[in-house]
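Folded chain entry
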Amino acid sequence: MTLHTMKVNLIMTLSVQNIKSNSLVISLILATTLLVLATIQTSFATEAQSTISSEPQAVPVEITTVDEKPIRLWKEFSGRLSAVDYVEVKPQASGIITEIMFIDGQLVTKGDVLYVIDPRPLKAIVQQKKADYIAAQNSYAFAQKEHKRAIDLIKKTMVSQQVLDERMNTELVSKSTVNRTKAELVEAEINLAYAYIKAPISGHVSRTELTVGNLVSAGANAPLLTTIVANKSIYADFEVDEQTYLRYTQAVSNDKQSNPVELRLQNGAQVYKGSIHAFDNKIDPASGTIRARAIFDNPQGKLLSGMYARLKLGAVTKENTILISERAIGTDQNRKFVYLVNDSNKTIYRQVELGDSINGFRIIHSGLSTGDKVIVRGLMRIQPGMLVAPVESGVSQ
């Protein structure tokens, strides 16, 4: 190989190596450029995503629209039942009990004979008084004839005026005797009727306190024989606070109606409907309450005197009232509040004044108006001014 050929080959080799080096540099530059562009693009995407994420998201909540509805308001109390008619049966005649005409706990009717006290001594007295009455009537008839005869004789001047006066006096005394003996006979017949002790009212009779053969006496110290409780209707006595009394008595005086009352026993199996019978004539200053009495029909006789009862006193008429679910009410120390949703779907804090609870709803005395949108679910995650996505609740007020 000549020297010239070797130079040419060397130059060609160096040229190829130079070209390869330049290609590598270009490749590195392109790769670096692409990496920088990718980094910039990623940064822009992250910043855009961050910008999108920083925008507030609407929180889904359930709301209900406030509306006034006519509702009869009720107030709950506890009380005791007492009999409308209660009678203690005591003897009005003295003697030995010879018969008992009822069974303990029996339902009796007014006029039924309950006890028989030995009537023989009283019958004898009646016969005696009858004889006295008949004798007085005969004496009076004879005195009338004597007086008439004296009048005829004095016209003929056959008797003196003194005789006429004596016979007139005899007639008057005889008439008085007739009246007295008649009254004594009536009294004897009444005492005889007392030997047959009758039920003064209809109702359930208690057990007998004395049995056949016991000697009883009439008067202030007469022994108790039994008792009778009327069962067709019954009273419920309970205490009403002064505010409720003023509200309901004002309504009654205006409408001239009686307040409805509902009664439940301890088992709560049946509801009895009645009405207010009367309020007491004074308020107890110690408790600030007044005694109230309601009356109920008791056709089956299941309500007994002395039973404990739960009572609900109702308003005379229905009133337009705002009710909201108790779930919608929050507590802030001693204050009660709700969250409303305005036209911009932002939440508003609103303090409210509560009334009584009715089947899971609360009466609102102040703080809400018709048309307000109240949040009823999701209250714990709500803050004032928060953006929400309201959905009307299916729970009716």
Remarks:
- The longest helix spans residues 3-53.
